[in-house]
Amino acid sequence: MSRLGGIEFGGTKTVCVVGSPGVVEDEIRFATGDDPAANLSTCAEFFRAQHGVEAIGVGAFGPCDPDPGSPTYGYVTTTPKPGWGGFDVLGALREGMPDALLAFDTDVNVAALGELVHGAGRGLGSLVYLTIGTGIGGGLVADGHLIHGLMHPEMGHIPIPRPQSEIEVFAGVCPFHGDCLEGVASGPALSARWGTPAQDIGPDDDRYEAMWDLEAVYVADALHILVCTVSPQRIVLGGGVGEQPQLHERIRPRLQASLAGYIQQPAISRHIDEFVVGPALGNHSGGIGALELAHRLVSEDLVPAQQSMAAGRAVADDDSIGPITS
Amino acid sequence: MSRLGGIEFGGTKTVCVVGSPGVVEDEIRFATGDDPAANLSTCAEFFRAQHGVEAIGVGAFGPCDPDPGSPTYGYVTTTPKPGWGGFDVLGALREGMPDALLAFDTDVNVAALGELVHGAGRGLGSLVYLTIGTGIGGGLVADGHLIHGLMHPEMGHIPIPRPQSEIEVFAGVCPFHGDCLEGVASGPALSARWGTPAQDIGPDDDRYEAMWDLEAVYVADALHILVCTVSPQRIVLGGGVGEQPQLHERIRPRLQASLAGYIQQPAISRHIDEFVVGPALGNHSGGIGALELAHRLVSEDLVPAQQSMAAGRAVADDDSIGPITS
């Protein structure tokens, strides 16, 4: 078995792991910071010290470019995060690890892959990983494949219905859309809406029930949308807000009520507790997913273009470059 | 080249075609009716008269079961359409065509496949086909694969934001969700909202502008949701309402405004006229998609379980049967 590496670039922290499929043998965690070159240099130093790392899977915060046929494959693209916009993550990593095969995807797609193969989705073919924290993002594996297209899913930025009484008191915090899902249901949105950081509003606070009830309305509607658009076999909720048990217990009955018996599947009607779940891999969903991405690269499960690009050879990919995206 | 067959079961009409990939050589069209056994018998008679049809692809209205690992694979399941609920479409077809390989999916997934491979999506890897007519439904091909999971996409039944003034005057017509997308934007919803069938409200009618402007608000929000959840490279709008050019011209700028520059892709910012389009295959999206499904079956592009089931042999499919769906 070859030795594999994985990197999870979050907006605030970076995690580097080495190991084998499903197993983390060693890791480092450090602040992502505003100097991407220094960050990647730290990553490469860690991997070089491990000896014999054959392939590295990378999951990065977005928006980024996961299209192996694109000239900016492996770049973080239009992020507002200082220093990172337009940075060639995969290129910088290749400089430090010239002999390793490299694969790149979004942080949430990689976490979805990790949970599907080794965590909460073992035995299934499709899964959504939705993280609700500083931002909201979602990854999707369907029929075993990570899903891309025009770009990658940006599930935090969907429009959702809002109660009129809420529209009147809170405009939402998304700089692009105001009251999209992320604008009303992320951690910063909760802080802005209730005037106090969500983690400081405990069960004894007068606002506790109202805050989590409203959060559950928004997230249950978002899950209703995901059930009807991508039909996942399971939904994993991650992130500082998303993992709260008081949220899960409120979401499940609301999701059933919202779907109103239309999706007649036991997973919804009888086993909702197993349909909406927390991550089984704790804070390793991304790291183990990144190892799995590296494993797929080595075992040639990826499309040829991804392998070729990862090895530094640019090839055309007829399936992913159409007339409107070139 | 083997001779292929295809069936598109719509809620109102059935289309049977024979031909080769991308080419319809002969076809029949007839009312779907309330007697599914008689319907399938007519289909089988048509195919038998053609001689040598090796494989037949079937696209059916839903909800239906497209999971080759399920005991009800090939059934229409919970449809309100009289006579069809719980009917074994593939089983009835196999009785009339015992020697043909059979594959089954939703009508809209099959139409999406047809448009991707031979129509408006040629050269691309992913596409959504959204039909807006008597109902609203969507099919999804991503990275060349038809997408399934817990069930199949049911894109008509997503919750969407509604203007408060509209909430006050119209509750929507969906018997399950009231004012989901289908409840406010399908043909019957337009008729109920405006008191006149949509096709009778022409450009000279006082209500024409308001009706299409409101329809564009709803559909543009739905497309915003699809862009952020499944990231298609192109969206094809079909159906009696969906194909109206006055709708397309209203949707495109609204979709751009709704996404508000967040998805920085030329397909959205510069080539929106090529991103939201009508079907290139006219009323043959489903038929040519069904032929393509049959072609994939014959050329062994389908997963083994689908081929085995289609040949009448039940096999376990570890990827599609998880603990929560069994």
What does this structure look like?
The structure is a homodimer of 326-residue chains. By secondary structure, the first copy, chain A, is of the alpha/beta class. Chain A contains 12 helices and 10 strands. A 5-stranded mixed beta sheet of chain A has the order 3-2-1-4-5. The first copy, chain A, has a 5-stranded mixed beta sheet with strand order 8-7-6-9-10, with helices on both faces. Chain A is globular and about 55 Å long. Chains A and B meet through strand 7, helix 7 and helix 9 of A and strand 7, helix 7 and helix 9 of B.
**Fraction of residues in H or I helices of chain A:** 25-40%
Distance between the termini of chain A: 39 Å
Q: What value does the Rg of chain A take, in angstroms?
A: 20 Å
Assembly type of the shown chains? homodimer
**Using DSSP, what is the number of strands of chain A?**
10
Report strand order across the widest sheet of chain A. Answer: 3-2-1-4-5
Main pleated sheet of chain A:
5 strands, mixed
- Shape type of chain A: globular
Largest interface, counted by CB within 8 Å of the partner chain's CB? A-B, 68 and 68 residues
Number of helices of chain A: 12
Query: What percentage of amino acids of chain A are in beta strands?
Result: 15-25%
Q: What order do the SSEs of chain A take from the amino end to the carboxyl end, as H and E? A: EEEHEHEHEEEHHHHEHHHEHH
Task: Give average pLDDT of chain A, whole number.
Answer: 91
Secondary-structure class of chain A: alpha/beta
Low-confidence stretches of chain A: 303-326
